[in-house]
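Entry — protein

Goal — fold tokens:
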Amino acid sequence: MSNENNTQLNNMTYETAVKRLEEIVLILERNEVSLDESMKLFEEGTALTALCSKKLEEAQQKITVLTKEENKE
């Protein structure tokens, strides 16, 4: 992916990324795009999946920290 696409991904919220992933799945399931376009969509989907996983992991870590801090009080 290009740097511009990476910047757009990094600025994307979790919810927006999931919505785009759903759109990509629907497009690919219809089987109406060329192989080249399918590969581009697959690449985008892979990047979105990684972004979502990263955001979920960050949220989990934050919850863990907050829970530990709350239990100390």
